[in-house]
Amino acid sequence: MRSVARSLLRTASRLRGPAGPRDGAGLRRALFLATGVAMTAVTVFVYQVNLLEKQELQTVDARFELRGSQGAPPGMVLVEASSTGCARTAPP
To answer: Among the residues of the chain, which ranges form H helices?
Structure first.
């Protein structure tokens, strides 16, 4: 972790340049970039590992529970597809 911080500080000093202003704009730019990269990495990791799958399924269950025992609205057609039906209708 310390090596990452040192690397960010070195990058920030390079962004600032030797004769550039010393107001911290380069450091802010580097930290902003590092935050974006870190958040993207965390998001990809959480998505790939399915860490939030259980919570997502719980929200689906809660929505159906709130809906109650209502039937399908009129005008909606429910179609059941099975592997045997798909195999029968497949082109030769």
So the answer is: 2-16, 25-49, 53-67, 83-89
